Amino acid sequence: MPEKFDVIVVGAGLSGLSAAYTMVNKGLNVIVIERGDYPGAKNVMGGVLYRQPTSEVFPEFWKEAPVERPVIEQDMWLLSDASAVKAGHRSEAWAREPYNAFTVLRGKFDAWLGQKVADAGALIVPGTTVVDLLRDGRGRVIGVRTNRPDGDLLANIVILADGAVSLLSEKIELHTRWKPNQLALAVKEILAPPGKSDERAKIIEERFGLAPGEGLTIEMYGALTKGMVGTAFLYTNKDTLSFGVGALLSDYAEFKQNPHALLQIAKQHPALAPLFAGCEVREYAAHLIPEGGYDAIPPLFADGVMVVGDAAQLCNGLHREGSNLAVTSGKLAGETAIEAHNKGDFFGKTLSAYAAKLNDTFVIKDLRKYRRASQHMEKNRQFFTSYPAMLNNMATEFFTVDSVPKREKQWKIFKMAGNKLKIAADLWGLFKVVK
Ligand SMILES: Cc1cc2nc3c(=O)[nH]c(=O)nc-3n(C[C@H](O)[C@H](O)[C@H](O)COP(=O)(O)OP(=O)(O)OC[C@H]3O[C@@H](n4cnc5c(N)ncnc54)[C@H](O)[C@@H]3O)c2cc1C
């Protein structure tokens, strides 16, 4: 007879570990099954981890966790092929408690989190893949089948926290296979400046204008994604840099772009190349990001099962938020499992409380607010192509001192904008999908 648990969590990422921690702290018998050799082995993020939502589950985590740097500056660059228009915000308040966000490396961070969840009493089983879900005659999920010999396990509830590809919820027909425009593919390198760890940290601080220990993030739009709907990002870690570029999966095919080549070309951009001078590649990763938005969210529960985090398409790409949606959904699914356990009822009606709770949070409210944003961007590629280029041309003209009288210069810049009615209509359209 297979072993039985109160809850089986599939996936030791942020959502699965948050659910597990919530449940073991209330005495439930929880097993977390992870296909990677350790929690974090397979996980990729830019990555910025937000302090407030994460500390709702793991209070004051930053005091012990391997975070890289508190983020004190967040910048946005609009790039043409050879120049950049830059904007951003810096706040020294973010350098102190309670902090706003931290850069993290998921390989280290999730391993720490996994140990914390194990110390609290969950059984974490790495190196094991769940290949199917077990169901009773009425279709209720009653356990999982793993790739180990005699690898069936039973549970009152299974929480699917298996990430963006989400094969298990597809297997039980909570959704059909994601369409290529419902996922983005990002490739990322960890780059190390020359020298020992403290020398590398100093180089990073000098290159990015940071005080010791402080960090920044740069999000980039425009030329680097070659017309595709996507972004590039650059984040400072303790003694390395995380640099990546991502775009809709459908666009790679349509624009015949190779993600690896895209990343290598991006590193050569004149606004970026000096920041990477002398750096060597320490790690290379590729990962999918859910981009389907509100309309792609599958049913979040069924008899005996709940779906959390990326597996449920809970990702807000516009704001670079996924970790916080994962942690919050994991926590709420965990709380719902505790209630179901206390009632002794594991059917969908009881588990529907999870979806109801999530509806009341920023997770669903934000995704609903931006429900048309992704499709809008796909149809309005000028925001990734001609507009960043135009702004760069205007900025170059504005800042070039060439004895042209200012009135003439302003008129020239005004004319560079081309069709003003079209721009006004595009801005109005953008406003309508993000308002
Ligand atoms: C390049 C990139 C940059 C990002 N940047 C940011 C950022 O800066 N800030 C932010 O907030 N979010 C960011 N995100 C999004 C964020 O990483 C995700 O939203 C978050 O990791 C989701 O957590 P999760 O636990 O749901 O899924 P994951 O972290 O993907 O965890 C899923 C886990 O399930 C395991 N698994 C999968 N299938 C099985 C199976 N069958 N059996 C056993 N185990 C299985 C996987 O190995 C993995 O450990 C980024 C994502 C990417 C790819």
Structure description:
- By secondary structure, the chain is α/β, with parallel strands linked by helices.
- It folds into three domains: 4-68 and 104-178 and 295-360, FAD/NAD(P)-binding domain (3-Layer(bba) Sandwich), CATH 3.50.50.60; 181-290, 2-Layer Sandwich (D-Amino Acid Oxidase, Chain A, domain 2), CATH 3.30.9; 375-434.
- 35% of the residues lie in helices and 25% in strands.
- The protein contains 14 helices and 17 strands.
- It has helices spanning 14-24, 51-57, 106-120, 167-171, 197-208, 249-254, 259-267, 323-343, 348-359, 362-369, 373-379, 386-399, 406-416, 420-434, and strands at 4-10, 30-33, 48-50, 69-79, 84-90, 101-103, 123-125, 130-135, 141-146, 152-160, 183-192, 215-222, 230-236, 241-248, 280-290, 301-302, 305-307.
- The strands form two sheets. Strands 3, 4, 5, 6, 11, 12, 13, 14 and 15 form a nine-stranded mixed beta sheet that branches. Strands 1, 2, 7, 8, 9, 10, 16 and 17 form an eight-stranded mixed beta sheet that branches.
- A hairpin with a 4-residue loop joins strand 4 and strand 5 (84-90).
- The chain starts with a strand and ends with a helix.
- The model has no long low-confidence stretch (mean pLDDT 97).
- Bound molecules: flavin-adenine dinucleotide.
- Residues 10-16, 33-36, 42-48, 129-130, 161-163, 186, 188, 244, 246, 287, 289, 309-311, 315, 320-324, 326 line the site of flavin-adenine dinucleotide.
- Flavin-adenine dinucleotide binds at residues 10-16, 33-36, 42-48, 129-130, 161-163, 186, 188, 244, 246, 287, 289, 309-311, 315, 320-324, 326.
